[in-house]
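Lab notes, practical 5.
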Amino acid sequence: MADSTPGKRPLSPHLTIYRPQLTSVTSILTRITGNALLVGALLVVAWFLAASVSPAAFGAVDGLMTGWAGDLVMLLSLWALWYHALAGLRHLIWDAGFGLELETAERLGWGVIIGSVLLTILTLAII
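Output from the prediction step:
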């Protein structure tokens, strides 16, 4: 039956009444980092493509890549790579039927967040 009072009821769960939980935030971040990795990959592809076109094109893209904006994008891409990989591991654990209890799921969420930051710092220290 059609709703006789359109626009009076909020969508469920509505942002004004829904309290974000760690598991939902990490799930949303997994989607965001997956899409953000595409931006970093496209920038690297543009860098290689410019290198194959001409020295002038390479100089322009290389200037962008080695500038502060390129460094920031690559740093965030590195963090996104580690975050997305650890979140994927967490989902594999869940798919196997483990870690579904609320306390364990929260620990895994914090593990993904803290682990991705630590692995990013470790990778930067090695490079």
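Observations recorded by the TA: The longest helix spans residues 22-53. Residues 35 and 80 are 9 Å apart (CA to CA).
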